[in-house]
Structure formats: structure tokens, C-alpha cells
């Protein structure tokens, strides 16, 4: 009887679906609170009891954020993130191809080294990097963040792209070469189109990491602040503009949300391929 009752309960309650529902709710509730609070007035942000819906709806927090220079922070973050992502994809694609397709010695030590670099804590290298950038005169410049971001995100991109190159049949390259295509033409026309999901996956993760990075941006770039550092600099010693924080955070999330929605299939395919073939 007990077994029958349990089976009956399972017919009406699917535990994986229930768990997924609560996890989704746990993720979406803070995002909703951030969005709703960004449209509240400054006095209603900290109201007691709290307002679950903004009443009245106000855009004063967005005006306050842009009056504090948030538009410049967005421009700085876009320049740094786009340049770093482009460099990571260029170097990562060729390095992934070499490690995945070409016969070479020392592949295993190289892959282990890349894995160690990808999990290495940033705080351990901030001080040496600061001294190096100071000596070459790169502090308070875009390259002070572009090159460190490229170095830290490149190993992850190489791992993803290498796994994709491993899944491509060698017969396709051999057929292209028999037809007279050179090495670069074969790579561009035959190989690279098949690794687009991996390229999109590496690009999305790299852009997100550069967009949200805080420690290096705070340490190396005092003049050209990125979004995380710019948001942290809002207000003063005696005022905390929570509305501006929420509004700026909503704006900062928008590019990431667009990337994930546009390239969601490629990202899922890239992560799945890495899990199966790696």
C-alpha cells in the first residue's frame, strides 16, 4: 500500500520540475526586485513595509545614474570588453586548432598549464601586474585592462575551441586540400564554419567576464572606470543612492541578457560539446 501511495504522489508531483521551479524562482526574484526598485523614487526604495510594485513609477534613478557619469562607464566597458573578446577569439581559435589538430609534442603539459592559469586567482598577480603596467606607462589606459583580460580569459577559450576542433573529421580537410585549397583557405572555408558554436560560447563567456570584472579595473584604471567600478563610486561618504545602484545594475545586465538570448543555442551546444568531447 505504501508503495502504491508513493507512486500515486509521484504521478501528481514531479520532483525535478518542482526543484527547477524553485531554483528559477530563487534566481528571478532578486532580478525582479532590482528592476522594480530601479523605477521607485529614492524615498520608496527603502520604504517600510517594502513596496513590491513601484508606485509611483519614476525614472529619477536612471537620470541620477547618468548624471554621475554612467554613460562614460558604459563606453569604457564596451571598448575594453569588445577588444579583449576579439583578441581572445583570434588567438584562442588558432591555439585551439593547433592543440586539437596538429601533431606536436608537449600537448598534455600545455593543456595542464592552461587549466592552472584559468583557475589562478587574480589577486595573486595584481601587485606584480601593477608594477609592470606602471613601468611601461600603461596605467589609466585601455590597454591596462585589455591585455590582462585577454591573458586570463584565453585559456578557457582555448579549451572550448580545442574540443570543437577534435570533433571535426580530418577527411574534410584532406578533401579540401586535394581540391587545391591552401591551409588558410581550408581553415577559413571548411574548419572555422563548423566551430562557430564554440566561438560564440567562448565569446559570450569572455565578454561577460570582462564586462563584470572588478578587481583589476579598480587597481589599474583610475581614469577610465568600467561599469563595476563606476557603480561602486556612486554616492559619497554620507549618502548611498540605492536607486542609482539598481538603475545602473539593470542597464549593466541588458547587454549580457541580449547576448545570452541571441546565442543561447550556440552556448548550450558549445558547453555540451566541451562536456562530451573534453
CATH architecture designation of the largest domain: Orthogonal Bundle
CATH topology heading of the largest domain: MetI-like fold
* Range of strand content: under 5%
What is the number of domains?
2
Query: Which regions contain 5 or more consecutive residues with pLDDT less than 50?
Result: 274-278
Arithmetic mean pLDDT: 83
Derived from helix and strand composition plus strand pairing, the structural class reads: mainly alpha
Radius of gyration: 24 Å
Q: Largest sheet, described in full?
A: none
Helix and strand succession?
HHHHHHHHHHHHHHH
Name the overall outline. Answer: globular
CATH class of the largest domain: Mainly Alpha
Separation, N- and C-terminal Cα atoms: 47 Å
Q: Helical percent range?
A: over 70%
Tally of DSSP β-strands: 0
The CATH superfamily of the largest domain is MetI-like
Number of H- or I-type helical stretches? 15
Task: Describe the structure concisely for a colleague.
The protein is mainly α and 278 residues long. 75% of the residues lie in helices and 0% in strands. It is built from 15 helices and no strands.
Q: How is the secondary structure organized here?
A:
Blueprint: H1 2-12, H2 15-38, H3 42-45, H4 60-67, H5 70-101, H6 107-118, H7 126-136, H8 143-166, H9 170-178, H10 183-191, H11 196-212, H12 215-220, H13 227-232, H14 242-262, H15 264-277
Can you describe this structure?
The protein has 278 residues and is an all-alpha fold. It folds into two domains: 2-38; 64-277, Orthogonal Bundle (MetI-like fold), CATH 1.10.3720.10. It has helices at residues 2-12, 15-38, 42-45, 60-67, 70-101, 107-118, 126-136, 143-166, 170-178, 183-191, 196-212, 215-220, 227-232, 242-262, 264-277. The protein is globular and about 75 Å long. 29% of the residues are buried.
Amino acid at each position: 500500500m505504501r508503495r502504491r501511495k508513493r507512486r500515486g504522489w509521484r504521478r501528481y508531483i514531479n520532483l525535478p520540475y518542482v526543484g527547477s521551479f524553485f531554483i528559477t524562482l530563487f534566481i528571478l526574484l532578486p532580478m525582479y526586485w532590482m528592476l522594480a526598485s530601479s523605477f521607485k523614487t529614492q524615498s520608496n526604495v527603502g520604504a517600510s513595509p517594502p513596496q513590491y510594485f513601484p508606485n509611483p513609477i519614476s525614472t529619477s534613478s536612471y537620470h541620477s545614474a547618468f548624471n554621475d557619469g554612467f554613460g562614460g562607464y558604459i563606453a569604457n566597458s564596451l571598448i575594453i570588453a569588445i577588444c579583449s573578446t576579439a583578441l581572445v577569439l583570434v588567438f584562442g581559435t588558432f591555439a585551439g586548432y593547433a592543440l586539437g589538430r596538429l601533431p606536436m609534442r608537449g600537448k598534455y603539459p600545455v593543456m595542464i598549464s592552461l587549466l592552472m592559469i584559468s583557475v589562478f586567482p587574480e589577486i595573486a598577480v595584481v601587485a606584480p601586474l601593477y608594477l609592470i603596467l606602471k613601468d611601461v606607462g600603461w596605467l589609466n589606459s585601455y590597454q591596462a585592462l585589455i591585455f590582462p583580460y585577454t591573458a586570463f580569459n584565453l585559456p578557457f577559450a582555448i579549451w572550448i575551441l580545442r574540443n570543437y576542433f577534435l570533433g571535426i573529421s580530418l577527411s574534410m580537410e584532406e578533401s579540401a586540400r586535394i581540391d587545391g585549397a591552401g591551409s588558410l583557405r581550408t581553415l577559413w572555408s571548411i574548419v572555422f564554419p563548423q566551430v562557430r558554436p564554440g566561438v560564440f560560447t567562448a565569446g559570450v563567456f569572455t565578454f561577460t567576464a570582462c564586462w563584470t570584472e572588478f578587481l583589476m579595473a579598480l587597481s589599474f584604471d583610475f581614469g577610465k572606470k568600467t561599469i563595476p567600478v563606476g557603480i561602486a563610486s556612486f554616492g559619497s561618504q554620507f549618502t548611498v543612492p540605492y536607486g542609482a545602484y539598481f538603475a545602473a545594475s539593470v542597464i549593466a545586465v541588458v547587454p549580457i541578457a541580449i547576448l545570452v538570448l541571441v546565442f543561447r543555442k550556440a552556448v548550450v551546444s558549445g558547453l555540451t560539446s566541451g562536456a562530451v568531447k573534453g
